[in-house]
Structure formats: structure tokens, C-alpha cells
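Data deposition worksheet. Section B asks for the primary sequence of the deposited chain exactly as it was used as input, without tags or linkers unless they were present during the calculation. Section C holds the resulting structure in C-alpha cell form. Section D is free text for depositor observations; keep each observation to a single sentence. Incomplete worksheets are returned to the depositor.
Section A, Depositor: J.P.
Section B:
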Amino acid sequence: MPESLPSPVPSDAESARFRILEPLRAAQEQLARVQDAAGIGVFTLDLREGVLHPSPAFCRLHGLEVRERYALAALAERFPAEDTAIPSGTSSEEAVYRVRDSRTGASRWIARTLEIERDADGAALRLAGVVRDVTEQRAQGTALAESEQHYRTLFEQMDEGYSVIEFIDGPHGPLSDYVHVTANRAYAQHAGIENVAGKRLREIVGEEAEGWLALYGDVLRTGRPIRFQRELVATGRYLELAAFRIEPPSRRQVAVLFQDITARRRVEHLLHSKAADLEAEVVAQRRDRDRVWTLSPVLKVVATPDGRIEAVNPSWGRTLGWSPAETVGRYVPDFFAPEERAAAEAALERLAAGASTDLELTCLTKDGGTCRVLWTIVPADGLLYGFGRDITEQRHAEEALRQSQKLEAVGQLTGGVAHDFNNLLTIIRSSVEFLRRPDLAPERKRRYLDAVSDTVDRAAKLTGQLLAFARRQALKPETFDVGERLRSISEMLDSVTGARIRVVTDLPGAPCFVRADASQFETALVNMAVNARDAMDGEGRLTLRLDGAVPMPPIRGHAGAAGPFVAVSVVDTGTGIASADLGRIFEPFFTTKEVGRGTGLGLSQVIGFAKQSGGDVDVWSRAGEGTTFTLYLPE
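Section C:
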């Protein structure tokens, strides 16, 4: 601490001196108070006497008791020998040292500046200095250094390429080139250019430079950051870049952040190519779909779940005569025959539950006619999609085929019918001859008349059965008693199969009901009976047997079913069927009969009827032991 001025003395000689020195002393005290308030300590060190004169702020900074003087020996005990808190006087350079407060244990960094007073020989006599607390500044400097190191590490380790470019003037004019001020290691990885720092753009990329200068030059001039993608032709890399100006503009610097997207660009190009191909394929498929919609002979209808029509294809108009304008907005059942609309509405209810359905309905044409259409309707995406096939001609052909099969069966029976009618006519003729005798007794006359009457009744009944069997009628499933039908058929067969073939009917006591087409059922029985008659060569026994509530066994590789089923068996005592022919007897037009005696359609009608009715036909045969056909129908 600077030495105090001498106290004034009350002598006249000193009075003037006091008046001069008093303001100086007051100024020194004021300076000391300001320094103390600012935390700046001052000191003087007398090297000859070994005494330190510290200011109060010096003492507080070093954790010392405030005193006007300290002996160096006492301070040496307070501070370690290696500590620089005690100046040696060998150097006047600024020193920064750390002291620890003995009371709080806290560390504090002190910066010291001093002046050395020397004698004539240059030896240090006295030191005067200033100390200040630089703990906060040192902490800030440390934090700044750590932050710089952090960002430097981030700069070097980041995945993206980064560089700072600085625009310079060149032979091509002002701001006509730029130099790479700095670049991280990822720059070379993404751009494909090594050691770019310090290099000018034009020496790296040549003629390509103008495009890059225009982009980054605009950023420098306007201050607007940009993001863009561009190919670096010099290395064949495609880059995604972002650039912004480094302030202030006078620095002429722009920061560039980028990454190599060559692989991604290649994948995107491939995806775009595939997308274009896919779009073209979708367009082609849509065109094909529209073509199928327009040209298909199948009737196509799109309707809401409640049956309101939203679209129809041209085939609808070609088949039914209704134009789209006359159809769209109306309800599907409106175009069905009145007696079948209930079935259509029931189908709509099933479709609303999510189930597809197939049904055959009679559709009304615009000209007042009808056509038979087989519909398949599928619910999807909240709509109903209906596909209909006009089967009117097919049904007519099927009906003609069934009728021809009936006529064929009748033709097969023609021989037996003629023989039976010949017998009936013989009885009638003989009775008439006897009735012509004038001497015929009344009793015998009455007996011959009864015989004629009975014979005529038998002929009428046979004629009625044949006409009923051969009558043309539409296919119509109905529920009927199989036993009653077998009795009726057996009576007809007994009349037409010949006297040497015995027809036996074996029926259960309880009735057996099935739902099928009765006419087709009778045709199937007659077809099997005709085959049995031919196999017995006009002599033997033909048995019609009925069993109810039986399961259907596996037949020809098809799985069986628990049923219950009705089993109708036609058993003959004929020659049997060769094992080589058993696998083919149900094929259309297959026959083992002589030419002119059969078309081979009889058994195909039998199995077709069975399958259509939900059943099947089984056959057992052995050469010389006869044949058994069993028709299974759901009971």
C-alpha cells in the first residue's frame, strides 16, 4: 500500500505544506476506496525490509486479515513455496495464480501486474502492483474453449458435408470466384473432392463454376438461405444442399451444408420409372376393364345393398332392351317376373348379411317378353355386383333333351306296349266273336261283355300312363311321396316289360318325401328299368326297393354324407355289366347295345338328375349275377 503522507503539524512553516499535501492525500484515499469497491487490490513490497503493504482489497482477495503490513516470513507460511502469490521481483510480466480461501475453502484466480523499482546497479528495491479477481473471466474462457472444442468435434464428426466459402475477386471480375475457407472430413466423402480447404472453385470444377457461383452469389447478395439439389458434374455426385450467408455481409462468406444423394436419386429414378410403368399398366387394365364391361355378353349390374341400380353394362340393354337411362335409379326386383320377386328380395337380405348368392330368375324385357337369366351376385365395398348369363336357349335345349329322353324311353318300351295291346285286342276280338253267336247263353254273354269292358279299361289306363309320362312340361322341383310314385311306375312297367318279367315293389310302411322334379324322377326310373329289361333279355325279375333315412356312402371317390337320404334301388337278375365298362356307363352316348337300340343318354340323364337334386347314383354289378342301381336323394 502506498505510504501515508505525514500528518500536519501546527507550525507556521508546515501550514503551507499541509494545505498543499492535504488534497493529494484526500485524492489518494478516494482512489483507494474506489479500487477497494471495485475489488482491485494494490500493494507495495519492500524487498530490503521484507515487508508487504497490502490494501484491504488485496487482503480480501487472498483470504488474509486486513492489515497495513505483513512480514514476508509470515506470508511464506501462509502460501506454499511453489505458489506465485508472493512476487519474487525477478519479472514484471503479468502473472495469474490461484489462491484458496482458508475460511471457505473456495479457490480464486488472481491476475497480478507490478512495477519494479531498482537501484543504480539494477537490483530490485521495491515492488508496486495491482491484483484483481479473474475467476469469472477464466471460467468463461474455459467454457468458451470447451464450447469451441465441442463444436469443432461436431464439425468434424457430423455425417453431412460442411464448408465455409469466401467470395473473392478474380480475373473474371468482382466476386467471380470463391475459396474454401474450411471444410470438414465429410466434405470429401459426399463431394468426392479431397483436401478442398484453401482451393478455389474454378480450379476444382472448371466450366461448371458459373452455375455454383450464381447460386451462392445470390445467397450472398440477398441474405436469403436456399435449399436445392444439383449434380456436381466434376465428380458425378448428385447433392442435396442448403446454404446461408454468414453475417455480416462484408465477410463475403457463405456456409454450405450438403449430403450425397446419388444412391437415393438412383432409387427415386427407379421408383419413378416403376411408378410410370405401373400407372401405364393401371391405365391399360382400366382400359381392358372398360372394354370387358362394354363388350362382355354377360349382364353386369352394380347396385346398392337395398337393390337400387347404379350402373348397367351395354349387354343389359342388348338382352333386355332397357337403356341405362331407363334402368339406373330403379330397383332390381322391378325387372323380375312378379312371381319371382319374393325370391329376389330374400336374396337381397342374404346379400346384406355379406353372403354371395346364385339364383336363376325370369327377367322382363322391354318388349313385354321374358328371358331366363342365371345370376351370381357378390357384395363388396358397400355395393352389390351382379353377373347374369342369359340361359333362355340353354333351358329350351335342356327341356328338348329331357323330352327326347322321355321319347327314347317310350320308344324302348314300344315292343312291350305293342305286345300288351295285341293281347288286349285278342281278348276283345274273341269276346266279340262269341257275342255274335245267336245261341249264346245270357250268362256267358254277360261274362264276355265284362271281359271286353275290363280289357278296354286296361288299355285306357296303359294309354293314360304313357301319355302322362311322355307329356312335355317345365322342370319344377316339388315335394312328393317316393312310395306313391314307385307304385304308379311299377304298374306301368308291369304292363310294358312283358309277361316273362316279373315286377316286384318293396316299399317301407312309412312315407318317404323328397323335393325334386317328379317328371325327371319318373324318367330316371324308366331309364334304369329299360336297361334292366334289356339286360334280362325279356325274362327275369325286376325289383323296385325303397329305403328311407339312410346315409349316402362314398361313391366313385366322392365323400359320403350322413343324410338322411332316400335310397331307390332298381335290381335285376340279368347278365350284369362287365367290370371294364362300370367306369363309363354314365358317360353321355356310351352304350353297349346294338346300333339302333339306344343312344347312350339314359344313364347320363339319371346321374344328371341325381346331382342336380343333391344326391348321387351308385351301381353294383357282377357278371351273371345281375345289377343294382341305387338312386340317393335328400329326404
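Section D:
The radius of gyration is 62 Å.
The first helix runs from residue 12 to 37.
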